[in-house]
Design a protein that fits this description.
By secondary structure, the protein is of the alpha/beta class. The chain is built from 15 helices and twelve strands. It folds into two domains: 176 residues, Rossmann fold (3-Layer(aba) Sandwich), CATH 3.40.50; 180 residues, 3-Layer(aba) Sandwich (Rossmann fold), CATH 3.40.50.2000. It starts with 9 loop residues before the first strand and ends with a helix.
């Protein structure tokens, strides 16, 4: 059955991504396309407490529903406790859907089979989602499409954002080339905070700022800190850049090693909110680091990120913001250019194949 779009007044985008910055940013284009296709509809999107700020300010988004249970849904606990957490999450979302009373609900990634039951239990008329191995509740969907993820189809050169768009194509919504651009809109309050931060450190618009993200959650995505140090010396010395060292609090030791090599030319930015981080990234000339959420955020605010690739390739999951992306990578394995998280040793090997010289060959022209 076709969805009567002219009669649709409320749409919910069910986004249960817990803490992945890049994946959350790529929900934005889905919302933009939906608003263009159904301009009179009120669009609501769910989000985790951590990542809700990434969607704030999106002109096409009318409401964000923060799902508190997503804050620690990925924590390592026993099966019984995890089941209780997921049950609590589902009850919360069902309750919200019943309050909103949407006409249509789109169930995005991650693929968690019971999530397909949520809009069905809430009696949402039109329920759109993916079918995949293990999607035993896909009968609860009114419209569906096969999930074409990298590890399901081995389409290594098909970008992650296209998987999100597949769910729109499933109900006849057209996608235009410009729809793939991912944008983060920085609030006035965050811009003012960034101004105060830079003034505090006696930095002006004339200063050349480079954002650096040397940490990463997984070892096979972390470039050796010693190589970051060597690059930092060139950026701060030869190019007179000031480095803003971003990261989580647990990455302080890594950033301290870089800062110690360039006294007076490095400023730590640890544990700040994503909104504040976005505002600072917007003020930078360039961003540089491991394949991480910070690089996606930089591109989304218009700052070009130079990203070190080993586990993946930019064609598969690279930043899609107005800042684009500058890849730093060694030779690509044509048979398997994208590794899974289990390919630890191969990932570390590929990461070590990326040299300081390769990084500088990309970074230096971008700073001139």
């Amino acid at each position: 059955m076709d969805i009567p779009w002219k009669d649709v007044r409320k749409i919910v985008v069910l986004n249960l991504i817990a803490n992945t910055v890049g994946d959350t940013l790529m929900v934005g284009p889905v919302i933009q396309v939906l608003k263009r296709h159904c301009p009179k509809a009120e669009i609501t999107c769910t989000a985790s407490p951590q990542n809700a700020p990434l969607l704030e300010g999106l002109p096409q988004l009318d409401r964000i529903v923060v799902v508190p249970q997503l804050a620690d849904v990925g924590a390592k606990v026993g099966k019984a406790r995890k089941a209780l957490r997921y049950a609590s999450l589902m009850r919360f979302v069902v309750k919200k859907l019943r309050e909103i009373k949407p006409d249509v609900c789109f169930i995005l990634q991650p693929n968690f089979a019971p999530s397909q039951l949520v809009p069905w239990i809430a009696r949402v008329p039109y329920r759109v989602g993916y079918t995949y191995k293990g999607s035993r509740f896909s009968w609860a969907l009114t419209h569906s499409t096969s999930f074409r993820g990298t590890y399901e189809t081995f389409e290594y050169y098909r970008h992650f954002i296209e998987v999100n768009f597949d769910i729109l194509r499933a109900v006849g919504i057209p996608i235009n080339p410009e729809d793939t651009v991912v944008r983060k809109f920085v609030s006035k309050e965050a811009k003012a905070w960034a101004n105060d931060f830079l003034k505090k450190h006696k930095l002006t618009a004339k200063d050349k700022l480079v954002a650096v993200q040397a940490g990463a959650k997984w070892e096979n995505k972390r470039w050796p800190v010693e190589r970051f140090v060597e690059v930092a010396k060139v950026l701060a010395g030869k190019h007179h850049a000031t480095l803003l060292l971003f990261g989580a609090p647990q990455e302080k030791e890594t950033n301290d090693k870089i800062a110690a090599a360039i006294p007076g030319k490095a400023i730590p930015v640890l544990g700040e909110s994503l909104e504040h981080v976005a505002a600072l990234l917007e003020r930078c000339t360039l961003a540089f680091g491991n394949d991480s959420g910070i690089m996606h955020l930089a591109s989304s605010v218009g700052t070009k990120p130079a990203v070190i690739y080993a586990m993946s390739i930019p064609e598969n999951s690279g930043p899609r913001g107005p800042g684009g992306v500058l890849p730093i990578m060694g030779p690509v394995d044509k048979d398997k250019p994208v590794l899974s998280g289990d390919d630890v040793e191969e990932g570390i090997k590929r990461m070590k194949n990326v040299t300081v010289e390769m990084a500088l060959a990309v970074l230096e022209p971008a700073l001139k």
